[in-house]
Amino acid sequence: MDNILSVLVFFPAIAGLLGFVVNKESARAYGITVATIEFFLSLWLWFSFDMSNAGIQFVEMIPLIPSMGISYYLGVDGISLFIIIMTTLMTLIGMASMGETKNIKNMIVTLLFLEMTMVGVFVALDAIIFYLFWELSLVPMLYIIGAWGGPLRVYASIKFFLYTFTGSLIMLVGMLFVAYLYHNVTGVWSFAITDWYSLVLPVNYQLWLFAAFFIGFAIKVPMFPFHTWIPYAHGQAPTIGSVILAAVLLKMGTYGFVRFSLPMFPDASVMAIVPIAVISLIMVVYTAMIAYAQKDMKQVIAYSSVSHMGIIMLGLFAMNAEGLTGSVFQMLSHGIVSGALFMLVGMIYDRRHTKLLSEFGGLTQVMPKFAIIFGIMLMASVGLPLTIGFVGEFLVLLGFYQVSPIMTIIAGTSIILGAVYMLRVMKLAFFGPLDNEENKKLKDLNARETWSLIPLVAIVIWLGVYPKPILTPIDNSVKVILTFMNKKAITQEAKDMIRVSKSDKEVSNVRAD
Amino acid sequence: MLEPINVSLESLNLITLAPMLIAIAGGLIILILDLINEKLDKSLYVMLTVLILFVDFGSVLGLTMNERGFFDVMLIDGIAIISQLMIIGASMIFIPLALTSKRFHEYSYPEFFALFLFMIAGFQFMVATDNLILIFVGIETASLALYTLIALHNRSNSYEAAVKYFTMGALAAAFFAMGSAVVYALTGSVELYKVAEVLATRVNETGLMIAIFGSSVLLMVAFAFKLSLFPFHTWAPDVYEGASAPLAGYMSVVPKIAAFVVSMRIFEMYIELGVEWVRWTIIILAVLTMTLANIMALVQEDVKRMLAYSSISHAGFIMAALALNTTEGNTAIFLYYALFMFTNLGAFTMLWISRHKKRRFNARFDHPYEKFSGLVKIMPMGAVVMGLFMLSLAGVPPFSVFWGKIYVMQAAVNAGYIWLAIVMGLNSAIAAYYYLKLIVYMFLKDPVKDVDTVYYNISKPLMAIIGFATLATVAAIFYVEPLLQWLTFHVSASGY
Questions:
Q1: Contacts of B377 in chain A (CB under 8 A)
Q2: Does residue A509 have a pLDDT over 80?
Q3: Which of A96, B252, B365, B437 has its CA 20 to 30 A from that of B75?
Q4: Domain boundaries along the sequence of chain A
């Protein structure tokens, strides 16, 4: 199936439209079935993906508005492939574990549309199509937060929408300017990212454009100081909203850096290493401290998620294969781990209708299964060896060590700080005396909840022990990008900085056909 | 004794006048029908109007490009053709909004439809000439008809709106007449192509700059009134509020297209003569218009007033494209309106079907935000459709207005005004807030009261119109390309 990407994008959308017809009672089963099919489709994509080819595969290209250079242009490489699979997996599991019962049909339809936009962002190779899905993804999320959220939901959802919308409009101007420059050089209008890659820009243009794209992506990541929307979004969103937000929507920002900023503006990216590293370190350390001070369990997870996004950003700007591969891997592990943690918090919230740490204590006695799974996810989040969290974090730190040992040491504290605030949650919620009367009546995870979490636990341990099947394709594609950046960089210092790896002999520099 | 003037009929090229004459004749037919039989229903008049406009549309399509006629005052160039087609097309989709299920006073008069057709003839005259006097005649024909149409809505604030619009329109007309007089004094001609020739030779004369400056200022004030640009926009929200929703929607599209075509003819002449400050004045006016109108729209309590300010802001957005004076910029004006038209039609139709005879929610406003709260529970499809229109107006891809926005921004970037594109982007972000506000009311709040009466005014024709507008809004991505090519061809063929 050559057009599997189109199927992947439009299957959930069509299912969403048809979902309006499905009866309310059957909506959840419908949603889970559709999400399962979508997940298997994405697995099919993985199995038919040619691992020996590091370039872009399954390319589809239909000109849509040729006089503006806009075409329907899709493709995947090793980087986007696994993010897509993670997206479909997390949507499926999120939907399956969802405790929501109010307006379930609207929720299912919204989630299916959201899934379309998320997959669309990761497969788009045309800047306008990317932008289209990027903006569209805001609408279902706005509705999810606004309709099912907490007391401040309307404020939180509007804040989320406007923040991202503003940033991406600046990014849009950047895109239009790149298209204009491309037209100046070649005489052809094109928004295809692969065409843009061939454009060698002077350094000052690169810096301006880097800044324009940075605003769009950094708000989404969210990088300090643009992160203020996220505590509201997570705090007010229903469980499923937080899961999707943390697992997938935040990855759009970091993925944008890999897809646009790094290959298009290599010199500017190298110049931005230090500022971005500083911001990332602030994210890592500062938000970890905030996480420690939280009274609300969900806010701890929310801030820890921001803190780990700092590690991902650091890896992206390590400019070497270890850092970048680790960073992409960390995107996957962060998606799975923080998604699972939000689900777990949601499950306890469904039972007690509170997320305050002070309300809990001694939960291991009444909810052993819950405590075990929570413990595993918590360890993975901290980055314990043999869990998924360790692989990415270690590679990122290894990569960034080549840039700056001191900064790497500061970043390494994230593991310690992470352990501090996460173990505090563990201690306050799960250990100690079971002194709250209401907690004594708590029921352990039911079958639905258990079985939606077990696949995640399995992945966490499997990829922690044996990450190679995923690391290799990512590594191949990352090396293509780095070789390309190295060749394209104008300044010598950028060329020196961008190191592919010690053994880059097998790397081809063919980006796309 | 005077020599008899021999004019051959061929040299008059009367076919150039045919479209306007069809509209006028159609208006007269409607009046005569009323004389013969007084009891005819509005549906007959509506359909007759649509049919007359259809013939009108066909006669415009049959015109050959770049021709002059009728003592050379008529000018049928590419932009005259596209703007006439857009004016007629928009009128054809707006007039069926008269077919509501409830009876509204104004539509029972055949005079309404006759005036409507006369107004269209006026707009057609405006765009199909480069003679300042004929432009003036066109403006006045159209405006006088429009004032009356507004007043026919038969409410105290409709009269207020009509009188306000009339006063402001008269003021604008005076400015236009004075500006034309100065142009005539400078060049001895009222034909723009001759004016351009004479000015080109005289532009460097000492002491003349101040007169050229004066003429352009007067004309610009006139058109700033017509296009509701800051600071001459203050009439617009009140007039929109007083007019019925279909007319308000119509006013935010059709008169503006006509005024934009004339502005294009006049101001781009100045810009091409090298009067750079005209360009800068337009840009500054455009930036102020979009920003301030957006900020004003944020604090409105009434959806119709919000849409009024939003359409002011959209006009500012487009005005910026005019200042670029590139083929792309001028194409962008038409593309934007062609795409904006459907969304706006849809949004105002949604207001129209939720119109009550009495104000139920608020003593002051017909369409306060509260009226739409919880619409998704009362009328799910209606809420989804209105939400789509709001997203489209906010510029969320892939809905229609986004493609207009991106084309205007691309035109600005290509002309070297990157800062302008950024200002446009930021303005779209501000605008998103007030469109979202309606979405929030519709989807995230609970209904207040009188839940059963929200879709008070709906009828099958109105549903068909909304369906059409929705389709055109959602499927824009598929027809932007042919539309764009067609527009670019006509705009560049007429030398803009």
A1: none
A2: no
A3: B252
A4: 1-236, 272-494
Query: Cα–Cα distance between A38 and A122 in angstroms, integer?
Result: 15
Q: Which two three-digit tokens encode residue B153?
A: 């809505």
Q: Minimal Cα–Cα distance from B266 to chain A, Å?
A: 28
Neighbouring C-alpha atoms within 13 Å toward the C-beta of B189: 13
- Average pLDDT of the segment spanning B449-461: 68
Give the separation between CA A194 and CA A481, rounded to whole angstroms: 12
Mutant choice from B481, B483, B484, B491 vs A, greatest count of A C-beta within 10 A: B481
**Helix/strand/coil for B68:** strand
Q: Do B484 and A165 touch (CB under 8 A)?
A: no
Contact A176 B484 (CB under 8 A): no
- Check pLDDT > 60 for residue B328: yes
**Which pLDDT does position A277 carry in this prediction?**
92
- Count residue pairs from A and B with Cβ separation < 8 A: 89
Contact residues, chain B, for A66 at CB < 8 Å:
481
CA angle B332, B336, B337 (to 5 degrees): 120
Phi/psi for A467 (5° steps) reads -80, 0
Q: Which of B137, B16, B22, B124 is nearest to B70 (CA)?
A: B16
For residue B478, which residues of chain A lie inside 8 Å, CB to CB? 64
Rounded mean pLDDT of B245-267?
92
Q: What is the pLDDT of residue A504?
A: 43
pLDDT digits (tens, 9 = 90+) for A323-347: 999 999 999 999 999 999 999 999 9
pLDDT at A506 over 70: no
Percentages of chain B per state (helix, strand, coil), in multiples of 5: 75, 0, 20
Give the pLDDT confidence score for residue A508 in this predicted structure: 42
Q: Model confidence at B272, in pLDDT bands (50, 70, 90)?
A: confident
- Indicate if the pLDDT at residue A92 is higher than 60: yes
CB spacing of A180 vs B414 below 8 angstroms: yes
Burial of A125 from C-beta contacts in 10 A (0-12 / 13-18 / 19+): buried
Query: Where do runs of H (alpha helix) occur along A221-272?
Result: 229-236, 239-244, 250-256, 262-264, 266-271
What is the phi-psi region of residue B62: left when phi exceeds 0, alpha when psi lies from -120 to 50, beta otherwise? alpha
User: Which of A17, A131, A169, A213 to mutate to probe the B interface, most B CBs <10 Å?
Assistant: A169
- B432 in A contact zone (CB under 8 Å): yes
In a domain, B324, yes or no: yes
Which of A40-54, A181-195, B438-452 is predicted least confidently? Answer: B438-452
Q: Do A131 and B397 touch (CB under 8 A)?
A: yes
Angstrom distance (rounded) from CA A471 to CA A392? 10
pLDDT tens by residue, B434-452: 999 999 988 888 887 655 5
Residues 441-460 of B with CB under 8 A from A: 443-445
Q: Is the pLDDT of residue B454 over 70?
A: no
Q: How far apart are CA B213 and CA B487, in angstroms?
A: 32
Instruction: For residue B223, tell me if it sits in a domain.
Output: yes
Average pLDDT over residues A118-124: 94
Q: Round to whole Å and give the CA distance between B337 and B90.
A: 10
- For residue B70, what are the domain limits? 12-493
Over residues B138-144, the mean pLDDT reads 92
B303 touches chain A (CB under 8 A): no
Preferred mutation among B418, B430, B492 to probe A, highest tally of A CBs within 10 A = B418
Chain A nearest CA to B491, separation (Å): 15
In a domain, B1, yes or no: no
Which carries the bigger pLDDT value, residue B149 or residue B101? B149
Count of domains in chain B? 1
Average pLDDT, chain A: 89
The ipTM of this complex is 0.89
B477 touches chain A (CB under 8 A): yes
Q: Which residue of B has its CA nearest to A180?
A: B414
Torsion, Cα A318 A321 A323 A326, to 10 degrees, reads 160
